[in-house]
Write a structure and sequence with these properties.
This protein is mainly α and 229 residues long. 80% of the residues lie in helices and 2% in strands. The protein has a two-stranded antiparallel sheet. Helix 3 packs antiparallel against helix 4, helix 7 runs antiparallel to helix 8 and helix 9 crosses helix 10. The longest helix has 30 residues. The termini are far apart.
Length: 229
């Protein structure tokens, strides 16, 4: 009976975590956080590291995308990511891929990356930590998508260290991979990075796009006038 009750609680908690992730994807982060808070409370008496890792990962994701780039947001995200890594290390199944992904996200947070933007400046100590973390990640096995984010992180690190040329080359390398696989969301994130590294280039690209639209509008008007004549 006790085992059945424990299993029931675990299943209920897992459903709440999944519901939280769906709500997060829909943009309802307040409700998402409520669901994951309840799941965490349910799992408080459990020794299941796999589920604890899912809770910490979900909380980190929610704050990462809904936070306001405040210092307390960064602390909360890093706290959850660190706990997630520790839980993954104690898990009953191989979580090496998850550890690599979470560790990479930790480096990006230190570099000032958030899902809705990139900080203009970060502390020198954060840059040093990020560099150490990225050196550690270079020995891990990464998925193809994680490799793109790793290149993104390397580009951002180069920019933080004042090497704009290397940052630009790495950003372009990541962009080519994203365009090859039609990863539009990642391309949007690279646009944010490019705006930080080369603000003038990003402005020029925007102006060219506006001029192209204006040209097409004028061309359409001209054709319409010719037809009316």
């Amino acid at each position: 009976m006790f085992i059945f009750q424990t299993l029931r609680v675990l299943i209920h908690a897992r459903i709440k975590v999944r519901k939280a992730l769906i709500l997060h994807d829909l943009g309802d982060d307040d409700e998402a956080m409520k669901e994951v808070d309840e799941a965490e409370m349910m799992l408080s008496q459990s020794e299941c590291q796999d589920d604890a890792a899912e809770v910490d990962n979900a909380k980190a994701n929610i704050v990462l995308s809904s936070g306001q780039n405040r210092k307390r947001d960064q602390k909360q995200i890093l706290f959850r990511l660190d706990r997630c890594i520790k839980c993954c290390e104690k898990a009953t199944v191989d979580k090496s891929a998850s550890i690599a992904q979470v560790t990479l996200r930790k480096a990006l947070v230190h570099l000032g990356f958030y899902q809705h933007g990139v900080l203009e400046d970060v502390a020198t100590s954060d840059v040093a930590i990020a560099e150490t973390v990225l050196n550690r990640i270079s020995t891990m096995t990464l998925t193809e998508k994680s490799k793109i984010y790793f290149t993104y992180a390397q580009s951002l690190l180069a920019y933080r260290k004042g090497d704009t040329d290397t940052a630009t080359k790495l950003e372009q390398k990541a962009r080519r991979k994203c365009e090859l696989h039609d990863l539009y969301f990642q391309i949007q994130q690279l646009d944010l990075l490019r705006s930080l590294i080369r603000p003038q280039a990003a402005l020029t690209t925007g102006c060219h796009g506006l001029l192209s639209i204006l040209f097409l509008v004028l061309l359409s008007v001209s054709i319409a006038l010719v037809i009316l004549q």
